[in-house]
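LOG
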Amino acid sequence: MKFSDEVLKAYLEGKANEAEAQAIEAAVAAEPELEARLMELDPFAPVVQAVFEHVPAEMPQVVLPDPNAEIKTSGGPLRLLAVAASVAVISVSATYWVTRPQPMGWAEQAAIYQSLYAADTIAGMDSSEQALTTQFDQAEAQLGLSLRRDTLEALPGMELKRAQVLSFRGKPLVQVVFANEQGQPFAFCVIRQGEGAPSKDLKEAVLSGLATATWSKDGYGYMLIGDSDQTDLESKLDILTATFAS
């Protein structure tokens, strides 16, 4: 069936009767050339095309309500706007899912927290025997794990300053703070991940501007954090991994 430009424009403007609209829509399904003509005559086509150009190649399925359920029209701008709005919703949703920031893990959070520390932060900490004993008792009770205080106190070039209990998504996270020979803060963190948590080999990275090393074993995660991105952690890691991965 042949349709004049005037008839097609009337359809796009919502002026075609229901019989004409149904005939055009049926013809479009079978004739790609007719669809191309409609796109050429449709003032909203560039908008729809621009939206499609920004839709990522892969995106989660988005279930939208049928636009005809609420908008009853024989065609024209309202129907085209409904289609364009639906495509826009898909585009925005897809862009969110593709570009949304990934949630940070416990190591990233611990590094951010540690990056706020300075030499003055730890200089005034109460690191008396009584204070440390109380802190370690509380930390070990929360973790259900010995922190091997004797080993931590013997780390070369490190002065034990404090142990405090933090929390990450409901799991106890213990931060043990040290001062190195220059008075700069170091930290050794342990989190109880729970039974069934996978063991992970040692991984070194720079997080929040600090050199870090992480590993996991038997339901616990471990992390050593230096005082800068250039900190050499090797000598301390040898001791800690041998102690807390055996």
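LOG (cont.) second protein
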Amino acid sequence: MDVTPAVRRQSPSSPALWSAPSAEDEIFAALASPVRREVLRLLRERGPRSVQELASCFSMARPSFSEHLRVLREAGLVSERRDGRRRLYSLEPVPLVRVRDWLDPYERFWRDKLSALRHLLDDSVTADTEATGTETTGITTTGETGAGDRPHDGGGRPEDPDEERQ
């Protein structure tokens, strides 16, 4: 059973065509399965492993597991070598560079968005400080503000004078 999808390509001068998937498509299709991602993790952490060692980590029929290894091998994410009667599988990290290259623009996009948000918030705090002459305090990075979910100065004393009497 081939689990690699065909890719529909359109060109401005021709109708839609079905073509073989690109190398990136095969890599992403291989990474789409949690089983295959776990196989890659095992190989990364434990080094080369036999089919038996890898299959013992999963509760599935051996032919199904072999199909996962075939998809990983065809995508270039693992290599296979014979050691006597055993087949040893190893992680091939080079194809993952294509994944990283594909993801880089998105990482830059989100880094730029978060940087702009940080500057906006910094400007807002600066404007509030200039307007009131005091800096806003009491908010931690986890969103917790202290006892009773009200901001306090961290000195163990609540800011609300009514709270002291209780």
